[in-house]
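Subject: Response regulator structure
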Amino acid sequence: MKALIVDDESRVRKAIRLLVHWEEHGITDIQEADNGLKAIELIQQHRPNLVLLDMLMPLTNGLELMEWIHNHYPDTKFIVISGHDDFEFVRNTILYSGTDYILKPVDETAINAAVGKAISAWKAEDEERRAMHQQHVQVNEYRPVYSEKLLTSLIDEPFSQTQAARRLQDERIIPDTVSDIRLAVLQVDPSDEALYNRFGNHQDLLMFALLNICNEFMQKDRIGVAFRHFSSQRNIVIMVWDQLATFPTRLKEINSGIHRTLSRYMHFGISPTGLYPEDMPKLFNHGLSCLRSRDLTVLNQFLHEEVSGVRGGDHGLQFSAYEDRWKLAIMSGQPNLIAEAVEEWLAAMRKNGVITPELLERYDRDIERFLLRVIHEAASPLAETLLQEYKEESAASAKPSPDKHLFSYAEWQQYWETTIGWLAAALQSRKHEGQDLIHDITQFIEQNYQNEVSLYDIANRFHVSREYISRKFKQRHQINIPEYINRIRISKAKILLQNPGLKMAAISEMVGFKNEKYFSLVFKKQEGISPTEFRKLHEKDS
């Protein structure tokens, strides 16, 4: 077996080498690292069974290393050896499934007891893993696809319950005597990449492994059955028809079995007692509601029997109260204002206390609607294009799952900052594009002033709305497009009027006026005198 010692002090690493009875524990390969980053490299290269690590180290500290091991090598056991009796350090050691937390100076008896415990746990879990690996991926008598579809139909198709129940009894999957039942819904975290990677990202294999463990406990005393709910691919339903009062205790045993095998604890939503089969839909929905309303800030609570009173629509915290601050940050395009706006919202979430998957989804849905409104308001003529880009960006981004087994404020903070940061940058880019667009429209007018140039024609040519062009053009030039065209025409007409050989009607037509009378009217309005008077004044000056 292999071990890795991680500490930035060489004397501590040397002491651990001398104090641990390596051969007694079956450890023959011992590596050392003086920082967390080097430890990660060695773990990837040598795959140690056990890591003994310090908390305060350069580059990557002990907290970050624990989390990394938990996410990437959950089978590896680790022991924390620290000089700090810090509650947060101990809490994170428990959170990331550490075997022990030992204080410096290291005691020989204590460290060998901890190493022995870790190695024993690793061997026990390895036996379970080997046993599972040797099992053929096949459907057994309790979980054929046909049976799972029949069991699912008891929930999803209440009108065909009688027929489905009769078939399940004929198949000897559910006894004839079943009357009272309870259900539990086991939910798999869809964002748990480390867990999915262990099964080659093959969801069916993961679900099969979980069903095997669940049914091992259910079929032991023939008290129930576990099956995959076909309509929701990541939910497993556990139905019990005997020993109903001790159902939560049995679920704890199942969860311990899952942790031994997969190094994960799962969340279960548990129903009250109901009648079989007519109450199956109601009991299933109750289990889902328990999961959706569980408090994500509470650690190490995996069984949920009550539907929380804090529901998505009843909660006091409303994102609408923070929209102005977010909009100001987005329109400014400044990363520090964006970070402050998101942090203010997260602080409100923390202060509010309870956070449930249902609430998280509502918050994110409200933020999504707000961002769509910002796009429509700030990028009016180009909104459809920007909306499409936003949808593509959202689909590609790593959005945290509200049902994640370990909730993290930091993950949601990073996601929201990234999302509104992208939108701010996109809007800034569109702003520059809008300025370039008005420049192009101005050039087009100056080159075609002598022709009929309408707002409708310009909008069609540049593929933007008339309202947007009109508003942006006036912001740039302080006058509207017809006035701007007339200014150009009159300016050109003043030059042509200095040529006595040109008739007034010809000049009017040359600068784009089809009506000489209208030309005179516009000229006098702009210059204060008629074209004829302008010509006479010019002749006198000459």
